Each structure stands twice: as structure tokens, then as C-alpha cells.
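Entry
Fold in C-alpha cell form

___
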Amino acid sequence: MLLWIGEQRRPIKKDRSSDLIMDSVINYYISEEPQLAYDVGKLFLDNGAYTAKMTGIELDIEKVIFVQEALRPDQTIPVDYPFEQGMSVIGMKKLWNKTASNILHWQNSTNLSGRLVPALHAWDKASLVENVDWLQRNADAEYVALGSIVNPQFATYEGFFGDRQPRKELIDMICFALSCIEKRSNFKVHLMGFGSSPLMLHLAYYLGVKSTDSSGYRRKAAYGKIILPGTGERYLGESATGFGNTTLDPTDPKNLHDLELLEKCTCPVCIVNKYQLWNDWKARAIHNEYVIKQEAKKASRFLAFGIEAYEKYLDNVVFCHSALRYLWEYTKLRRKYYRISEVLFEGRKK
């Protein structure tokens, strides 16, 4: 299981030689001589397509390739075309055809072949099956990245990666996509941006995702938020952008449990002075990164003993008192439903 930590041209830490790092082409797009400002263990370079779409930038394919080849990533995504809400099926098919064409172009006309992670998009269940089959036949890759996986009501539904918020619909689409990929291909799955909180990270690993990334640790820190071990985020009240999150006030007895969790934290900040978290966004970023990494290690440890041991840990520790307990219970049901469905399907074939 892989966890890629998001970094940028202005890094939180320059020594990343022991880290798996997720960076983006968009951070180097205007550079004439792109180069990293940090040492890196392994680099996964996102193509920047989603950010470009959100900011109104039209990516030049050859310029993206130039940046990717210059930075020499271990893994990178050919330019893909995420769907827009309300788009027609015809429109989504055209975008998928452009994405598929780029995958072949990257494999045949760049020096990035063998390091590619193609993006998978689909507009209904039938197209998901068809597009997975196409990738299995044509993509020279170990991983695929889940992109826009949407249902037929996309005109009114926000879609798979519209907001990445924890919802039952999101779990449904992930479950079906993972089941389809596992049954019809040899690919492992990278789930973009699902490692920003311990709860969502554990849901991804429990469902069978082999790789995800955490870029939100840095953004949360800038907004005055920290991540607590085994749970969610807390707002420290430094910024006006609390977005309704629970404020962690060290003088409030109601926060005793959260403060005890923080007291046990062994990150480089907390072992010196945890009160730096209230005053320094970089201290919060270092803390958040450390917590997410520790959660990924716990997941690996429990999964080594089997999915039942991991499920028991999530039941009794991670989701025991969480507001997302309902989503955890739903995730267990959906995962087991798809496993049973596959067994019955194989039985019918025999």
C-alpha cells in the first residue's frame, strides 16, 4: 500500500529522500527549466488537468510532456479530461476518447513509457466495463487512477470526484469501480486525494485501494486545522476560515479527549512544543503529514494480519465514536455485497 505526500515548488521540507511524493505539472507549467526544489525518494507527478480545469487554463499537451520528461517522475498521468457536471453522454464519450488517445500518445511518443498511470473515466456501469477492458488491452501500466466515475443522473448529481465529500454515493461508485477493475484487469488502483484525513484513508485501504495521496495535509494547515490521530480534523482558531469544524480550545474541558490524543503525538512538533500548532502553519503541516503517515502504517500492520483484523480495528478504534460511523457501516455492507455478488457470478458461470 502506497501513500504519496503532496509537495510543491516551495516545499515544507527539502529532504524528501525517504518519501513518496505527489507533485503536479501545474506547479512547473510556466518554467523554462523545470526542476524540483527538494530531494525525493520517488515522485508521482500529476498532470495538473483537474487544477487547470478549475482555474480556466487550457493545457498544452506538448508542454505537459516537456515538464514530465524534465522532472523524470517514477509515475505520471497522461493528460486526461475530467467530466463537467451536466455534460451529455455524447460529450463525456468524446472526452474519454481524447483521454484514451493521449494514453497511446504518451506510450508511443514520449520517454515516459513504463511509468504511466492512465486515468479511468466512465459515465455509467456499461461504459466502466468497456473502458476497463480497453485499458487492459492497450495500457502498459501497473496502476490506473480513478477519475470521473458518474451515474446517468450526472446533470443533477455531483459525480465521483466533484467534491470528494464522504457520501454513500461515493462509496457505491468506488466499490463498483474496484470490483470491475479487479475482475476484468490486472491493474492496481490509485485513488486521487483520498488520504487527507485518517477516516477516508482507512476507508480507501479497507475497500482495496493500493495507492492514494495526501495533499490536504498542507491545505488544512494553512486554514488553521490539524489532523488528530485516528480521527478527523480540528480547527485551532487562528484563521477566520474555520468552516464550522470543531475548535480545539486548550482551556475548554470539553476538548479533554482531543487534547489527550494530541499529548500522545510523537511528531517532530509535538514532542518539542505542541503549542506551536496554534501559531505556525508549517508546524501544523509537519504535524498533519506525520499523523497521516502513521495512520497508513497502522493500516499496513493490520492488513498484514488479514482483512478481518483490520475491520475489527476500524470497528473498535477508528470509527468507534466517529460521526462517520454510519458511512463505515455502509462501506462494510457494500464491500461484502460486491464480494458475494462475484462469488455468485462465478458460480453461475460454472
In short: Residues 325-349 form the longest helix (25 residues). The longest strand covers residues 15-24. Residues 227 and 233 are 4 Å apart (CA to CA).
